[in-house]
Design a protein that fits this description.
DUF4399, 1 helix, signal, Immunoglobulin-like, elongated, 3-stranded antiparallel β-sheet, mainly beta, 144 residues, DUF4399 domain-containing protein, 6-stranded mixed β-sheet, 11% helix, disordered N terminus
């Protein structure tokens, strides 16, 4: 009896002492899949307070609307001035996390003057990042 309690206590303390990484969502991503922003380019100047196009790219994976559960597919989310959200939770939907659940591969956005970051993150049918997460490099644009 004491051995079982001691073993349980050891396992609990070991789990607390070792750092744990957040697990990604339940939907598998194909090997080597990645997203990228085709336009604008990193460091590019874009018009402030006027619409400009953002073009989404994706390799080794397909695009499917939200709610469609088909292997090796997902839909884009554009992160504006935001870090990647937790990989095991639904991607937020707000002015910094834009959802493209109809399967869009481009959009038009408008930014106030200043430096801004843009990044793509793929989500599965339920808006949860894939496992492993499929995202683009974070780029910076200057709105003036």
């Amino acid at each position: 009896m004491y051995k079982i309690i001691a073993a349980a206590a050891f396992m609990t303390l070991s789990a607390l002492a070792s750092p744990t990484l957040a697990t990604a969502g339940p939907t598998a991503a194909p090997a080597g899949a990645y997203a990228y922003i085709g336009y604008p380019n990193d460091g590019q100047v874009v018009p402030a307070n006027r619409p400009f196009k953002v073009w989404f790219g994706l390799r080794y994976m397909g695009v499917a609307p939200k709610g469609v559960k088909f292997p090796n597919t997902g839909h884009h989310h554009l992160l504006i001035d935001a870090d990647l959200p937790p990989p095991d939770q639904e991607i937020p939907s707000d002015r910094n996390h834009l959802h493209f659940g109809a399967g869009e591969t481009e959009t038009t956005i408008q930014l106030p003057p200043g430096k801004h970051t843009l990044q793509l993150l793929m989500g599965d049918a339920a808006h949860v990042p894939h496992n492993p997460p499929v995202y683009s490099k974070k780029i910076t644009v200057i709105a003036r």
